[in-house]
Amino acid sequence: MLLPVLAFVFGTALIAGGALLLIPRRAVAIDRRIEELTSYRDLDEPAKPRMALFVRVFKRIGDKMPRSPKEMGPLRQRLVQAGYRRPEAVTIFFGIRVLFALVLFAFCASPILAKPNMLMALGGLGLGYILPGMILARLAKRRAKKIQLSLADALDLLVVSVEAGLGLDQALMRVASELKFAYPELAEELNLINLELRAGKARAEALRNLADRTGVDDLSALVTMLIQTDKFGTSVAQSLRVASETLRTKRRQRAEEAAAKTGVKMVFPLVFCIFPAIWVVTIGPAAIKFVTVLFPMIEQMDK
After folding, report:
1. What φ, ψ does residue 4 adopt, rounded to 5°?
2. Minimal CB count within 10 Å: which of 15, 43, 142, 238?
3. What CA–CA distance (Å, rounded) separates 162 from 175?
4. Which domains does the chain have, with CATH numbers?
């Protein structure tokens, strides 16, 4: 009995010692977290050398593709909402779409999965053409969600800055600099507003461009409120405070709505994952006993 106990104690001590060695110190963990927050990716930085070749290939393929003028406007707006503002973003997207469709067509036409079938290959071609657009819509929706979640904190900072005596343009610049690490998406949009204002664009037009670039309903309502406040000369600080309270009320209502939907969403994993296991555990022994008892009785009755 002594040898198993000693082996268990030695193994436990060995695992605990390895865990203590692998756990970083508090200062190291703080430095790592600060590095993660400060090393955000700039959307306008050049592509990495290993990705530059793929970008050139996508751009070259996209240049050869015909484009519909009706499709270019919504597609460019969707790319901007997803955070891709380079002039060649549309060309690269067309190249990705065509190359992905051809790859799926070749994969479905080859005998890797099953016997080559032209119908399956054409289905893969259509799926490869549609899937990049769905992924782009998902990226735009995710970015809009991040901006929507960061809007309440930005409004609080904006209220504090305006009540401290700053103008609206200077307050926007200040909020952008403060939110650069915590919410880089919203900070980037606010920096674009400041650049447009410096270039001589009207404030109302710059704010409308902000609403169009993000596609967030709450931000569109805020932009409309700021334009009306500027037009009628009312208090900006009071309007921002009311907008902040309204936005937080909407966030609480969305959270309550999501909590109310939890019960309905839990039905499917309960039915398909948990209920079969409970069924096997509770009914399984009775079913086995029923089979072992009933079948011999049936055989005896037949005889």
Report:
1. -60, -40
2. 15
3. 11
4. 49-140 (no CATH), 145-262 (1.20.81)
Interatomic CA distance for residues 191 and 174, integer angstroms: 10
In this prediction the pTM is 0.67
- Identity of residue 293: V
- pLDDT tens profile 107-160: 777 776 667 677 777 887 888 888 888 888 898 889 888 888 888 888 888 888
CA distance 247 to 77: 25
The SS3 call for residue 291 is helix
**How far is CA 32 from each of CA 21, 25, 36, 92, 244, rounded to the nearest angstrom?**
17, 11, 6, 34, 33
Instruction: Please choose, from the candidates 145, 166, 129, the residue with its C-alpha nearest in 3D space to the C-alpha of residue 218.
Output: 145
d(CA 127, CA 110): 16
Question: Angle, to 10 degrees, between the axis of helix 89-109 and the axis of helix 49-63?
Answer: 90
